[in-house]
Design a protein that fits this description.
22-stranded antiparallel β-barrel, disordered N terminus
């Protein structure tokens, strides 16, 4: 590449030597030459010829240096542009393209047509690097022979091990470098899943389950807590659920409102199996589930509109834009369903109706980009839902308002900080009833109103050394909540008492972690967290009616602490194989719901217990990872062991009464495997298996040796996917679960089941896709709960899982990701 350079020399008196005869005014002298003919010596001779003896040598040297640099800059400028495509030839929008030369570095993002451009590049050669979510990074050298260089860059789908995950270590790490059983669901994984509800999408991860088998589509919210690896024998979550780093778990009860999650807003989902209290404290007893949202980088729209069986219309819509350093987005998700009757035909009575539900959630965010690596944001929203739980009287509803303020930013080349402040206010209402033995009628027994509020925040600092990352942080939150109940006689229908129970809970923790990398073979991760929590201002008061007599009173304040260490060692055995071992302690403090709120399921009433202790676990795991066929095949396996002391479970007192109690000790021993095979960019096969032997090892004699409730011994998932939007998109998924028990005495067995789900779609126009989907394609009805019979010797009352749930829909993604 050659250009001509024009040299303009201006001279004036201040540069002259003593005794010389300087010019009396500026004298422009213009010379033109070819860069190929220029060097330092010819240019110096030219300057001497132009200026003569009247310029000082030092000034002439400075002028020479400045002129040389200017001419090289002007003469070597080039334009480097091109297009980024996937392996099918479709443009990849939003890819990050970085250009590096000896003297400069710059980054841009591709537009809707996949194009990028760098203007006035001051060198004639360099390196281009392209990264994009879901693709392997590509590097290509370039060399300029003309003033404009055009590149065509092809991206291949990223292997699972190349994906970046943040939840496991609170910093970005490649999935292949994370010890243990971490799983990431990409945007394509979410789009290919036939399930409509977020929790049903996650059931494709082996070991993930709610407290019971039932989907959040019809289940009571209080049974929607997360369990991982068989850790959990009651409704609250034993895994912490986060949304962009903020707790997503109900502050009062520890369960999750899955309908609050807007599907079109999701960028990815991360699931970390195994105790994570060393970083996250209480609620992370069994692991972490984190949802990561989209941040608009240009004007974008995403929508999913469908209609399905059981009269189920559904809308999920997200829109965002970016203006200079500002970004803003808004989203809405609405759905309703007539549902289905939970009780099988052989046991139904006049009282049984469809378990229906409806919900609406809206949120909006505003962000400001502080720098290329920093962003501050505000987010707020509102969620409401209502449900019928299978009879006219048994209904519940929830209303929640929430807000978050946060900042993520780098400070220099080696430091990063993140800060979150959040709060929410919620009201939950639940009606309970007593049902006649022949299910011909029901009578109201309890009107329950549960108000709660929560505020909290946290800060984290990451410092990057040459071969290690240091993480330090702290967080705190406080929750206040109560259960206000109006109690009615099941025979006369008259109110006979009012019961008010509740209190406050405050938790504070500090944590630190060091990630040390030794050469390219060893990664050592050591972490420690200290937590302090207290329950205070708690009471349980009953007012008898009509007398007004008071019973009960305040509880004593209680405080406890926990230390949660963890250490993991990973050894890389080449580029495609690694092994790791981990050991940890974790804990979960009882929720206000477990301490102060009772509930009724069928004829069984479960009492609260204000004196519950925290659950504490000790665990260890060993893992291996193997890639083959140029990372097209990836296999990960883990053997795990977890002992939990004082697990909270619902203990049977008599046939119609249970109470939350600390059980003693349970043990979960098992193994899990995850396999992913992607022979081409459009074809993928994946699967997972988990074996969990979860038993009671120390308790009252009647329970020792029995299985932990709601934990199946075997769970298996698999998927076959062909994904070519311009041709056809197909996904077939299967899920199997073996027998599990619905009670602590193992007298209510829930039989094994297998369901098959199906998705098919095709892009009608770039960014517009039509699809059909079906869950439980073969209409297999299986038990999700069993209740003790109302009449001695009768068959337990069954609640069934869903029939086939089919829907048709349209998805819109503008601008198109292709």
């Amino acid at each position: 590449m050659t250009k001509s350079c024009t040299l303009l020399v201006l001279s004036r008196a201040p540069f002259t030597k003593a005794g010389a005869h300087p010019p009396t005014s500026f004298r422009p002298n213009v010379y033109s030459s070819n860069l190929a003919l220029w060097g330092r010596q010819p240019l110096q001779s030219l300057l001497e010829k132009l200026t003569g003896a009247w310029i000082r040598p030092a000034a002439r040297a400075s002028l020479l240096l400045l002129t040389t640099g200017f001419c090289q800059f002007a003469l070597a400028q080039a334009t480097v542009s091109g297009v980024v495509r996937d392996s099918s030839g479709a443009a990849v929008a939003g890819a990050e393209v970085t250009l590096r030369t000896d003297r400069t570095s710059a980054t841009v993002k591709t537009g809707s047509e996949g194009r990028f451009s760098f203007l006035a590049v001051p060198d004639s050669s360099g390196l281009i690097r392209v990264t994009a979510p879901g693709f392997s990074s590509v590097e290509q050298a370039w060399s300029a022979t003309t003033a404009a260089i055009e590149l065509d860059l092809i991206l291949q789908p990223a292997s699972v091990s190349e994906r970046v995950i943040v939840s496991a270590t609170r910093t970005e790490m490649k999935l292949s470098d994370v010890p243990g059983g971490a799983v990431q669901l990409s945007t394509e994984d979410i789009a290919a899943n036939p399930a409509q509800n977020t929790d049903d999408i996650l059931r494709q991860v082996p070991g993930f389950s709610l407290f019971r088998r039932s989907s959040s589509r019809v289940a009571n919210p209080t049974s929607q807590g997360v369990s991982l690896r068989g850790v959990g024998a009651s409704g609250p979550s034993r895994a912490l659920v986060l949304f962009d780093g903020v707790p997503f778990v109900d502050p009062f009860g520890g369960w999750v409102y899955w309908d609050r999650m807007l599907r079109t807003e999701l960028e990815s989902v991360e699931v970390v199996r195994g105790g994570a209290s060393s970083l996250y404290g209480s609620d992370a007893l069994g692991g972490v589930v984190q949802f990561l949202s989209r941040v608009p980088e240009r004007s974008s729209l995403s929508a999913d509109i469908s209609y399905g069986t059981e009269n189920t219309p559904d809308l999920s819509l997200w829109a965002g834009t970016a203006i200079s350093r500002w970004d803003m987005s808004a989203a809405v998700d609405m759905s309703r369903s007539d549902g289905y009757i939970l009780v099988p035909a052989s046991q139904r009575g006049l009282v049984d109706t469809e378990a229906n539900s409806k919900h609406a959630t809206v949120d909006a965010s505003l962000g400001y980009r502080i720098s290329n690596s920093g962003r501050a944001f505000l987010r707020g929203g509102f969620f409401e839902e209502s449900r019928s739980n299978g009879t006219p009287v048994q209904v519940n509803s929830t209303g929640t308002g929430f807000g978050v303020a946060g900042i993520n930013t780098g400070i220099g080349p080696h430091d990063w900080i993140g800060v979150r402040i959040f709060g929410q206010a919620q009201g939950y209402d639940q009606n309970f009833s007593a049902i006649m033995p022949d299910r011909s009628d029901e009578h109201l027994t309890n009107l329950q109103h549960v108000p709660s509020q929560q505020v909290g925040g946290g800060a984290q600092w990451n410092h990057l050394f040459h071969n290690q990352t240091l993480i330090v942080g702290a967080d705190s939150q406080e929750t206040i909540g109560a259960s206000d109940e109006r109690l009615f006689s099941s025979t006369s229908g008259a109110q006979f008492a009012t019961n008010i129970a509740g209190g406050r809970q405050r938790a504070t923790g500090v944590f630190g972690q060091d990630i040390l990398r030794i050469a390219s073979q060893w990664t050592i991760i050591a972490g420690l967290r200290w937590d302090d929590w207290s329950n205070f201002d708690a009471s349980n008061v009953r007012i008898a009616l009509p007398s007004g007599a008071l019973t009960g009173g305040p509880f004593i304040d209680r405080t406890a602490t926990a230390f949660s260490p963890r250490i993991s060692i990973l050894r890389a055995l080449g580029a495609n194989r690694s092994i790791s071992v981990s050991g940890y302690r974790a804990f979960r403090a009882p929720t206000l719901n477990e301490l102060y709120r009772s509930f009724r399921l069928g004829p069984v009433t479960t009492q609260s217990n204000a004196f519950l202790k925290a659950e504490r676990s000790t665990g260890a795991e060993a893992s291996f990872r193997q890639d083959a066929f140029n990372r097209k095949l990836e296999v990960r396996g883990t053997v795990f062991w977890t002992d939990i002391v004082n697990p909270v479970t619902n203990v049977t007192i008599d046939p119609v009464t249970r109470e939350r109690q600390n059980l003693g000790r349970t043990r979960s021993i098992g193994t899990e495997f995850d396999v992913n095979f992607r022979p081409t960019s459009t074809l993928q096969f994946s699967g997972g298996y988990q074996y969990t032997h979860a038993t009671v090892v120390n308790s009252v004699a009647a329970l020792v040796g029995l299985n932990v409730p709601e934990v199946p011994r075997h769970s298996l998932t698999w998927e076959a996917r062909y994904w070519s939007p311009s041709k056809v998109m197909l996904s077939v998924q299967g899920r199997y679960s073996s027998l599990q028990y619905d009670d602590d005495l193992n007298t209510l067995p829930l039989k094994q089941y297998f369901v098959l789900d199906f998705f098919a779609g095709r892009e009608l126009h770039r960014g517009i896709t039509a699809y059909v989907a079906a869950e439980n394609l073969f209409n297999q009805r299986y038990d999700v709960t069993l209740s003790p019979p109302a009449i001695t010797g009768a068959k337990p009352l069954e609640n069934l899982g869903p029939p086939i749930l089919a829907r048709i829909g349209i998805r819109i993604e503008l601008p198109s990701n292709r």
